[in-house]
Amino acid sequence: MLIVPMLDQGGLERVCAATARLLKEEYAVHLVVFNTTGMIYDVSGVEMTDLNLGAVDGRFGKVWNVFRRVRRVRALKKRLDIQLSYSFGPTANLVNVLSKHKDATWIGVRGYGALNSKASMRLTCGLADRVVSCTRVMEQEIARQFHPKKSAAVYNPCDIAEITRQSQCDTAAAFDRFFARKGKTVVSMGREHDVKGFWHLVKAVSLVRQKMSDVKLMIIGAGDYSAYKTLAEQLGMGDDVLFTGVQSNPFALLKKADVYALTSESEGFPNALIEAMAVGLPCVSVNCLTGPAEILHEDYGQCRDENRVFHADYGILTGVFHGDRDMDARHITEEERVFARELEGLLADEGMYRRYQDAARKRAEAFGMETYLSRIRGLVEEDVKDSASHA
To answer: 160-366 falls under which CATH superfamily?
Structure first.
């Protein structure tokens, strides 16, 4: 059983859907979704239950919702004789461990921010049979703080073949007019949320444009970007920033860009970074927790200094950004200037650009679907056998 709150836009949702598609070829898979409203990920061929128990307001309502979800999921586990249950994200993890029947329970921790909810993490890690993290750094930190029975780091899967296929598709005429204009394009991808730090990116690109005046910026993702549009206009680049909204095929847009930029305060495992590398985009990323260093450098332990710049094996890491959301166009931080210098250097140095372009494609292959399936398969066989021996 795979348990996820929703299947709308999001990293953990995408991983859950991919896991379901991969495992259904080898196991009887049942997918449980709290609410399928806004579902965009393809899980055709997978048996699915929609609990129709989406998010509610109020403390009492939330507690009652958890109780109802737990009761429904436990009944499903009994009826379907589930051997292993794997949940994705804090709300699903809570339901999973509280609905345990005879199944081995895995909880998936896919965002570093989840570690800040100490009480929830202590409860779920204490009850789960295994904690599955998406980076080794996160696994180590969870082991240090919460002492789970068993743990594993499993990198998120990336369907290289499908991304390559979709990247060859046409894009909308309005987008094509943007790409047709002179100048290279910096791109980033993610929902409109402060954790993504997109104001840093807008400001950094405005600095790059002081020397490379035709550089453009594209941000792909859902949300209200009106404040960012205003910031871009104040920085004199309003017409050169494209906010595409959520896209069912972002890869065709990524393919037409020149450099991928990641400016997040924190990540679990940045899927979008791998996806950009899969289409051949060299990357500049802040060295935030967690994921970028493990993706961009073979020996990520060498990149522990979060305030330094590293020209790593597969991309460029810069120091993390400090401070809260700042939409004042007059305020430019030193970290933003450093990020801008690295973007500019990569765009200007053709040799370095080609080197990181080739390295990006090569590195993406290490996160392919077969590698992920092999890792999950091994853990499933180990824990199902272990669960049966203790039954």
So the answer is: Glycogen Phosphorylase B; (3.40.50.2000)
Query: Per-domain residue ranges for the chain?
Result: 2-157+368-389, 160-366
At residue 244 the predicted structure's pLDDT band, cuts being 50, 70 and 90, is very high
What pLDDT shows up at residue 387? 66
Neighbours of 55 (CB within 10 A): 12
What pLDDT sits at residue 61? Answer: 94
Percent of the chain whose pLDDT exceeds 90: 87
- pLDDT one-digit tens code per residue, 159-175: 999 999 999 999 999 99
Domain 2-157+368-389 of CATH type 3.40.50.2000: yes
User: Residue 144 pLDDT more than 90?
Assistant: yes
Question: Mean pLDDT over residues 155-162, rounded?
Answer: 91
Burial of 120 (0-12, 13-18, 19+ CB in 10 A): middle
pTM, to two decimals: 0.79
